[in-house]
Amino acid sequence: MDRLTSEGESINESMTSHHHMLATIFKEWKRLRKRNGKKSLQALDKLAEQLLLHIEIEEKIIFPIYEITFTGSAAVTPILKQQHTRIKEYLNTIRKRMPTGLGESFGLDTEFARLLDVHNATEEYAVYPWIDELVGSEENEMVFSILDSFCWNQLNRNNGRFQEE
After folding, report:
1. Where does residue 3 rank: exposed (0-12), middle (13-18), buried (19+ CB within 10 A)?
2. What is the pLDDT of residue 95?
3. Could you give phi then psi for residue 114, rounded to 5 degrees?
């Protein structure tokens, strides 16, 4: 695969599609974690890998485009970045508790799911559509080219795995 997006797809469609993929991986992890085995940890690792990639794409590429127009009190990106920090904290806490079977204790996975839902809705309704409005079709292709290059560079730099810097 040499592109992360489909031809003619908008930023909103592409990033929302990635949210759906993340939700599918999350559901798979929840299904597998009841067994608390190797497959559950693999699903959690895949979720973390993809979430960290998604966060990095947003913070290095998507949010700066959004922030060109929206600054100060109109900008939602500071809140979204705070949520990114919380998402990473949840991932780390759940990962540490998985081997002990405590990954779902105290409603941690439910809180995590709720945070992801609120976070994704904010991006899908307040950020991504505005990016599509801000950039025309030529700029859209340029953004996708940057996304593709960024993601492949991440893969190559980290021996085929996405990792947080």
Report:
1. middle
2. 83
3. -65, -45
3-state secondary structure of 103: coil
Q: Are 22 and 47 in contact (CB under 8 A)?
A: yes
**DSSP state, residue 164:** -
Question: Tokens representing 65?
Answer: 């485009």
Residue 8 burial (CB < 10 Å; 0-12/13-18/19+)? Answer: exposed
8-state DSSP, 105: G
- Of the CA atoms within 13 Å of residue 137, those in its CB half-sphere come to 3
SS (H, E, C) 121-137: HHHHHHHHHHHHHHCCH
Is residue 159 classed exposed, middle or buried when 0-12, 13-18 and 19+ CB atoms within 10 A define those classes?
A: exposed
Structure tokens at 79: 């809140």
Provide the 8-state DSSP code for 100: G
- For 127-137, the pLDDT digits (tens) are 988 888 877 66
Query: Could you tell me the CA-to-CA distances from 56 to 30, 47, 146, 148 in Å, in that order?
Result: 24, 14, 13, 13
Contact indicator for 147, 58 with CB cutoff of 8 Å: no
